[in-house]
Structures are given as structure tokens and as C-alpha cells.
Amino acid sequence: MDSIDGMSNPVFQEWISHPDYDDFWQQMIPYQDEFAHIDIPILTTTGYYDDGQRGAMYYYTEHLKHNPSAEHYLLIGPYDHWGAQSVPSANLRGYEIDTVAAIHIRDGLVFDWFDYILKGKEKPSILKDKVNFEVMGENRWLHAPSLNEMGNDSLTYYLSNNKIGETYSLSTRENKAQNPLNLTIDFADRSIANNADYYPWPIIADSINLNDGLVFKTTPFEKEVIINGSFKGELHVTANKKDFDFSINLYELTPEGKYFHLSYYIGRASYSKSREIRELLTPGVETTIAFNNTRIVSKKIAKGSQLVAIVNGNKNPYAQINYGSGKDVSTESIDDSKYPLVIKISPASKLFLPIWQEHQ
Predict the structure, then answer these.
(1) Which helix (H) or strand (E) holds 2?
(2) How far is CA 291 from CA 5, 211, 314, in A?
(3) In CATH terms, is domain 31-150 a member of 3.40.50.1820?
(4) 17, 101, 155, 323 — which has fewest CB within 10 A?
């Protein structure tokens, strides 16, 4: 970056010299037990499409983890970064938000919150519980005492190599007899990007690139369901390199043929067990990569819709490229690639989606 810009950037170089969540980062913000000493009332506001959502959720979850009795409320809805702090856009990247989500956060909710904690007035009516979230497509807010209680059920889907047309199947059953799927990323081929379309803009699209990564699809839903919360997953993989970056993008494919971007995740395999300590892979040996730090969403999935998940490597102009040599990624170059990345994905790999069932 410094050579492209034509001048040194010591701050940037300092950042990338600390890829672990080490003392350098830990000293910048509250860390572990330090959260226990935060005893003031807090209101966190963020959005499903807020680039800062994961940062907001880090503070929220760590605070309640170390201080379970904290008076800490969360409000989250169909907002981007500025909408979650100020005035939501009626049309968010092509999606017309529900009318109940159109609240003035900065000059409405925030001042009502300060009146509550500083002047003893009524708590804002929208904060009916610790977690308050708007269900896209339902035009209503739901409320839960914790993130885990946003859902009362879950769906489990296995990454099957059965084909549905040109895509693979998200199956409710594991087929252990299936052969693993191969995902190949050729870092030397710069004519093709991988995971270049992960960012949800627009949120609703007429089509997506079905030739980028491994594309999995469910059968149509027989009844509507609400996805509530953060999806999780386990990838059982064997790679030919010591490390790799990967992505999971999740969509609703509506009966009208529209793709609604629900959530996404980008991760580094060597940090799947701990963000503080890098653990390299052993090439040729199967390992389990678990992830749960995905973006929260609440959305009604219509009857007849299908869920689409794209599993991919991360090679695009918007991110650092991990060539898999095991060296500090910021020091790697194309010379460290040597050969394409090949990831064998076992049929035991699966995704967990939290849902809300109205009958419970």
C-alpha cells in the first residue's frame, strides 16, 4: 500500500504487523474482566447492514459475558452504519424498509434514552426487553431477553454434493457415503476474482454470480419462517496449504426469482479456534473449522422461497490475499502461492440457522 501511495504509512504498517488479537489491540479497548467494571446503563444501536455491526456486538456480548447483570440494551434493524446512528434510509440499497423500522434514532430514541437514565422518565417504549429487533418483511418488532433467545428453534443444513440443477443441495440429512467437494482457488489467475460480490449492495438483486465458489440451495420452504440471529457453521475440510481465507454468503431466493442478501462471513482458517493465537493447518489432514461470528439478521422467509449459500475462497481487490504459505500474510506475495489452493469439503460440513417458530 505504501508503494502504491508513494509515501510511507507507519500507522497502517503497525496495524498489519499485528494480525493476532494481541496486546496491541487488547490495550486499546476494554478486554475480558475489564468489562465487569462498566456499570453504567448502555444502549447499543446497530443494523443488519451496518459495517460496524460486529464491533458493536463485540462490546455488547463481552459486556454481558463479564457483567451479566448490566443494564445494557440492544436495538438492531434494517439499517446501515449511518441509519443505525441517525435517520434510517427508507430505501436501503434497493430494499424498502418496513414502516415500523423508520424511527429517528439520533434525535428521537437517543434523547428518550438520556431522559430515562438521567431524568428518571419512562424507558423508551421500543425497548421492551434487552434485545429488540425488527423482522424484515413482517413490519413488526420482536423482543428477547438475550441474543440466544432471539430464536426458539434452528435449522441444520449439510453441504451435499447432490445437484439441484446447476447448484448443489443444502440437505437436512448428512450422507456420509458422498465424496467431498473440491473448491479450487488459483491465486495466479487475476482475470477471475473470488468472493468479489460478498458485500450486500444491492440487498435485493435479480441475479447473482452462480459460477463463483460452490453454490448450495435448499428445496422451497413449505411454509414461511423467520430467520432470527446469527448463523453458525462447521466446515470439515482438508486443504493442500497451511492456511486459507474463506467466505459464506447467505441469500433468500424468493418465488419471484429475486436474491435477498441475508448475511455473510469472511474468516481465516488459522484463527478459527482463537483470534489471539494463530494455529496453522497441516496440509492433507482433515480439520474442523467452526465459525459463529456472522452478521445478525431478522427476516421472514416466504413460503416457496429457497435459501442459497455460497462457499468460497477470498481473492478479490478488496481484501488482503492469504496465499497459504504459513508466513505472516502481510509479508506474502504471489511467489508464495506456488500452486492453486484446493479445499476438500466433507459432506459432514453444515450450517446452523436460528429461527423463530410462532407456534411455540
Answers:
(1) helix 2-5
(2) 35, 24, 16
(3) yes
(4) 17
